[in-house]
Amino acid sequence: MPVVRGKIIEPLFTAEEIDARNKTMAAQISAGPVKDLLVIAVLKGSFIFAADLIRALHNSGLAPEVEFITLSSYGTGTVSKGVKIIKDIDSDVKDRDILLIDDILESGRTLQFARDLMYERGARHVSIAVLLDKSVKRQEKLEADYVGFECPDYFVVGYGMDAAYAFRELPFVGVVKGDA
Ligand code: IMP
Ligand code: MG
Questions:
Q1: What is the DSSP letter of 177?
Q2: Under 8 Å CB-to-CB from 121, ≥6 apart: which residues?
Q3: What is the mean pLDDT of each run of 10 residues along the chain (180 residues)?
Q4: Are 11 and 72 in contact (CB under 8 A)?
Q5: Which of 3, 17, 78, 99 shows the greatest Cβ crowding within 10 Å of its Cβ?
Q6: How far is the CA of 92 from the centre of ligand 2 (A)?
Q7: Which residue's CA is the closest to the ligand 1 atom numbered 20?
Q8: Which atom of ligand 1 lies nearest, measured to the CA of 83?
Q9: What is the pLDDT of residue 77?
Q10: CB count, 10 Å around CB of 179?
């Protein structure tokens, strides 16, 4: 098993599996009702997934505009009380077709907040693509339109996702198993 900075990381989804899924998702997205697509990546965790998915969208014939929003949950400890905007998008979303891209759909609070925000600002349609769906953890009535993989209830790292600021650079998604 890979050892990264003294920690054993068990791969859950390999770079090859993710790449294949991204191509399939891009084909699904391009088959949907999208003409003038504005992609909004929800930072930070989605940055690698978004970069790969956007290039797969190009190969599926789409030419999306790309924006970034940084969102953060707040609350005490692990109990999330709400979501706040750390850095907003620059574009006007009025009458636009939006695709929100995030790394993980867990409770659903982050993407519920982002979707409501875009509709409040006048978006025509908002769809959601996530790499991973931890559906057992859902608190909100929210589903993604495009899901890479159903994710077991482990804390995962890599492919953009961190544990205490580490492991975002891993080309695969894995679980920290402890010290090597
Ligand atoms: P939600 O608002 O509960 O759906 O939270 C989803 C967000 O929590 C994701 O965008 C991630 O930033 C973060 N998150 C949830 N689970 C994990 C994990 O296993 N590893 C890293 N980040 C996670
Ligand atoms: Mg996130």
A1: E
A2: 92, 93, 94
A3: 92 98 97 86 97 97 96 76 94 96 96 98 97 96 98 96 95 95
A4: no
A5: 99
A6: 22
A7: 156
A8: 2
A9: 63
A10: 8
Residue 174 in tokens: 């894995």
Q: Taking the model in full, what pTM does it have?
A: 0.95
What pLDDT score was predicted for residue 157? Answer: 97
Residues 180 and 177: their CA atoms lie apart, in Å, by: 9
Is the Cα torsion angle 77, 78, 79, 85 positive or negative in sign? positive
- Report the pLDDT value the prediction gives residue 121, as an integer from 0 to 100: 98
Judged by its nearest atom, the ligand closest to the C-alpha of residue 80 is: 1
Which residues have beta carbons under 5 A from ligand 2 (an ion)? Answer: 45
Burial class (CB in 10 A: 0-12, 13-18, 19+), 138: middle
Picking from 92, 106, 168, 113, the residue whose alpha carbon sits closest to that of residue 134 is 106
| Alpha helix (H) residue ranges in the chain | 15-31, 47-59, 109-120
Residue with tokens 């695969």: 172
Matching residue, tokens 């969208």 = 57
